[in-house]
Amino acid sequence: MDSTSTTLRSVLTMGAISCCTTIEARGLRMRYGTTEVLRGLDFTVNRGEVVALLGPNGAGKTTTIEILEGFRARPDRGGLAVVARPPPLAGA
């Protein structure tokens, strides 16, 4: 990536979702009772990218996907946008 495209990307993403961002998650936290399953999860997925969530059992992979799909309640904390919109509410 040349310096011009790096600068353009910086301008597009300052304080807003980039034109090419499809999923943006910042500081996601989710708790089931006393068990914290997501602890400040941050990630961005841009258009055309293929992303995998890897981790041991109980790491929060399914919870993360279900929050993105709207099958679970919103996270306790943090921000989330899927194609520049919040995901649907679970059960709505």
Folded structure, characterized:
The chain has 92 residues and is α+β, with helices and mostly antiparallel strands. It has a single domain (3-82), classed as Rossmann fold. Helices cover 22% and strands 33% of the residues. The chain is built from two helices and three strands; from the N terminus they run αββαβ. It has helices at residues 3-13, 61-69, and strands at 21-32, 35-46, 77-82. The protein has a three-stranded antiparallel β-sheet, covered by helices on one side. Strand 1 and strand 2 form a beta hairpin. The protein is globular. It starts with a helix and ends in a 10-residue tail after the last strand. Mean pLDDT is 77; it is low at 1-17.
What is the fourth-level CATH superfamily?
Answer: P-loop containing nucleotide triphosphate hydrolases
Q: What are the secondary-structure elements, in order, as H or E?
A: HEEHE
- Strand segment count: 3
Number of helices: 2
As for the number of domains, it is 1
CATH architecture: 3-Layer(aba) Sandwich
CATH class: Alpha Beta
A few lines on this structure:
With 92 residues, this protein is an alpha+beta fold.
Describe the SSE topology:
Layout: H1 3-13, E1 21-32, E2 35-46, H2 61-69, E3 77-82
Antiparallel strand pairs: 1-2, 1-3
